[in-house]
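Holo model, adenosine-5'-triphosphate. Inputs:
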Amino acid sequence: MIIVVMGVSGSGKTTVGELLADRLGWEFADADEFHSAANVAKMRAGTPLTDADRESWLRGIAAWMDERIAAGKHGVVTCSALKRAYRDRLGRPDVQFVYLEGDRDLIARRMADRRGHFFPTRLLDSQFRELEPPGPDEQALTVSIADAPEETVQQIMDQLPAA
Ligand SMILES: Nc1ncnc2c1ncn2[C@@H]1O[C@H](COP(=O)(O)OP(=O)(O)OP(=O)(O)O)[C@@H](O)[C@H]1O
Ligand SMILES: [Mg+2]
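Output:
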């Protein structure tokens, strides 16, 4: 099984994903590793990525998942996967999406703490505008990020179909 930990920027994908992979003893990869240098430059400049920018990125993530699935391995990968169309690209029978749910103000506060300075809220707002939370037909797990990361990870472990 491959778990895709999804949600807006600052929702805790890396924090929760790493912890979850650790607890399960599964391989971990972060979505950021799959971005081209051009995308990284854009993001540093605070420019939201276009669908075209995200194409090579999604392909890289899909390839990582497929390699593991083919080898019969488990893994945890983070990916914002904000839009349904992105999730459709990454969806496979062995893939379980986990959506980290939290409200904008909570995430804005955490982002400010993390970066030690004010985070441009227009970036967070654009993330929320793009966000299409998983629908009931997508069979994603939805977990709250309101409590400590360990709590969030425990909630995921409790709801995970037996791997
Ligand atoms: N319950 C929680 N779940 C997730 N993150 C939490 C939680 N409580 C506090 N945090 C903090 O919130 C921040 C979330 O940052 P993190 O880098 O994990 O998010 P991200 O989704 O990977 O962001 P990005 O998309 O920018 O990579 C971290 O500083 C983390 O320590
Ligand atoms: Mg991250």
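Residues 51-70 form the longest helix (20 residues). The chain has a mean pLDDT of 92.
Archived with the compound record.
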